[in-house]
Amino acid sequence: xxxxxxxxxxxxxxxxxxxxxxxxxxxxxxxxxxxxxxxxxxxxxxxxxxxxxxxxxxxxxxxxxxxxxxxxxxxxxxxxxxxxxxxxxxxxxxxxxxxxxxxxxxxxxxxxxxxxxxxxxxxxxxxxxxxxxxxxxxxxxxxxxxxxxxxxxxxxxxxxxxxxxxxxxxxxxxxxx
Length: 177
Prior knowledge:
This protein has helices spanning about 35-45, 60-70, 115-125, 140-150, 160-165, and strands at about 45-50, 75, 85-90, 90, 105-110, 130-135, 150-155. Strand 5, helix 3 (about 115-125) and strand 6 (about 130-135) form a beta-alpha-beta unit. The chain is α/β, with parallel strands linked by helices. The strands form two sheets. Strands 2-1-5-6-7 form a five-stranded parallel beta sheet, with helices on both faces. Strands 3-4 form a two-stranded antiparallel ribbon. Mean pLDDT is about 85; it is low at about 1-25. Helix content is about 30%, strand content about 15%.
């Protein structure tokens, strides 16, 4: 039987080419851990999905549907759609993270890498417990800011892939962040 081992996330190209030999040296690239990913997925009940789309062909749309089907409360965030009585999968669209009137466990980010930093800063400001940067969304400084603020971080991964891979059925009541 062949065992597939998930490759480590290498982002050397995005790091500076500094060859400093100082004791601090360049920061190593962010690495996801299955333990952190599982903890986020088990502990998150309310997810704010930033970059939500009504278009069924968009990843944010079908990932949102998948999360709802697995027992998560998902709040779509899209400033263009907000305030127009718009809904995605039956959920009212909110304009910004600051407009959400309840605690948010996870902020799932479907934005370009260069825009993710501002969303991470908003997630920190609202007291979210974790940020999840979707596949292709890579922002090392933002991930570090979130970690420094005490948030858990997943980057360049998708919950629709990780939930079945880790055998998670959805949020649990006894998990701790």
